[in-house]
Design goal:
The chain is an alpha+beta fold. The chain contains 8 helices and 24 strands.
Length: 446
């Protein structure tokens, strides 16, 4: 294969970003997606009125600057669940229950799930009856309901139906016909009997606006793992303070425990924002159960995509990160020789500043290169290799075509034989292994 062809092939493979199936036409909500007011008798009114104190409007703030608005609901006496993306840049959250005008404040959280976009806040100075969560899988076409704040004495209860439990962009979600507006993101979706089946939101999928409920099973999982003491919201921001950075500098390394074996790595202190970000995600359990979703011979393996945890066989994946990107950090002396770890990104046409994906990473297995091939790469990429780089690519191998364009932030210290085994597996036309290979967990060595 010619050098230019190889550059094009691998560059296409490692970029992060997707173009959907553009043969589908953009549409709006279908007629059956409109929530209908529910007629209720007096006894039913009392049952639903009982839930109002446990549902709340929320506003998130960075200091005094308002960020996002939505809803949430109590799953513990002072524990309120909502969408993580509504509060992840906040320092405090205002909570106003549906049955009163008083505002309460949350400064901390006890659990969160970045991939499923959920967080449990601890609200100060309040006790409410927790809403019962449904642990069962809800049958298709079950009636779904949500409650709006009262207007006068009138209870506003809107109905739709559960279409199915589907995997959407790699995440398990209930598809519902209720029309969910942005101000209702985080609201509880109920079935008859007042049990909540999940957290409401909507989004565009296949050029159509659809409504969803994030299943209650993920809330129950967070409740089982919640912290005994709340942590401040501000630590969720995508920056590490000096205390955390100092602790991370002392970490000896990490172990990627995969279905194919263990891969031990170290993270470079020369790229501290990448080091701290990777360690934070590892502590969250973010990488656990994610696929090694891209495997290319003579290049390497790639993982860290949020849409792979629940991905079905053959699904096109690798396009979802943690919801943020990281500025490129190219360091002289850190280049793509065999065993190096780098960060993929969207192509220059969509990413002029070459910002890296917030969670995906690749490990280079590569191949050896001749001097004339390196000469061609210099001319094609307008990049000059050092003598050390040339020697490494001739003797050890790597992926020199990525130098100068992608951030290198770590290195494999042991277990390259596992990487070599993985790059030999059968893949589909998108370079996804035919037989799934997952990262079981990431273990930190202190």
């Amino acid at each position: 294969m010619k050098i230019k062809q190889l550059i094009i092939l691998v560059a296409i493979a490692i970029v992060v970003g997707a173009c959907g199936n553009k043969t589908e036409k953009q549409t709006q909500h279908k007629a059956d997606a409109i929530s209908e007011p529910e007629n209720t008798n007096s006894r039913q009114q009392d049952e639903w009125n009982r839930l109002l104190p446990s549902i709340a409007k929320i506003d998130s703030y960075d200091g005094t600057r308002i960020l996002e608005s939505g809803q949430g609901f109590f799953v513990g006496e002072n524990l309120l669940v909502t969408k993580y993306s509504l509060v992840n840049q906040a320092t405090n959250v205002s909570v106003t229950p549906f049955n009163e005008n008083r505002k309460y404040t949350a400064h901390g959280f006890v659990a969160f799930d970045r991939i499923n976009d959920l967080i449990i806040l601890q609200v100060d100075s309040i006790k409410r009856e927790p809403i019962t969560l449904s642990a069962d899988t809800i049958p298709n076409f079950t009636k779904s309901l949500y409650v709006a704040p009262k207007t006068g004495k009138t209870l506003q209860l809107f109905t739709g139906k559960v279409l199915n439990l589907a995997t959407v962009r790699g995440t398990k979600l209930y598809r519902i016909t209720n029309r969910i507006r942005k101000s209702q993101f985080g609201a509880p979706i109920f079935v008859d009997g007042g049990k909540a089946i999940g957290v409401a939101y909507s989004g565009t999928v296949n050029y159509e606006m659809q409504s969803f409920a994030i299943p209650a099973e993920f809330i129950l999982a967070m409740l089982r793992k919640k912290k005994n003491e709340a942590e401040p919201l501000e630590i969720l921001k995508n920056t590490a303070n000096e205390k955390i950075a100092a602790e991370n500098r002392k970490i000896k390394g990490l172990v990627l425990e995969t279905d194919a074996g263990d891969i031990s790595i170290k993270l470079f202190n020369e790229t501290p924002e990448y080091r701290d970000n990777f360690i934070r995600l590892a502590k969250e359990g973010y990488f656990d159960s994610l696929l090694i979703h891209r495997v290319i011979k003579d290049f390497g393996i790639q993982s860290g995509a949020a849409d792979t945890r629940y991905a079905k066989p053959g699904a096109n994946v690798g396009f979802r990160g943690p919801g943020y990107t990281i500025p490129a950090h190219l360091v002289s002396g850190l280049y793509h020789k065999r065993g190096m770890i780098g960060s993929p990104r969207k192509p220059d046409t969509k990413n002029q500043r070459r910002r890296s994906d917030g969670s995906q990473f690749y490990i280079v297995s590569g191949r050896k290169y001749f001097d004339n091939e390196l000469d061609d790469l210099e001319e094609t990429n307008n990049y000059k290799f050092s003598a050390a780089q040339r020697n490494a690519y001739r003797t050890v191998g790597g992926a020199p075509h990525l130098d100068g364009s992608y951030t290198v932030f770590g290195q494999v210290t042991s277990g390259m034989y596992v990487v070599d085994q993985i790059v030999q597996v059968e893949t589909d036309r998108r370079w996804r292994p035919v037989k799934d290979i997952r990262i079981r967990r990431v273990r930190i060595l202190k």
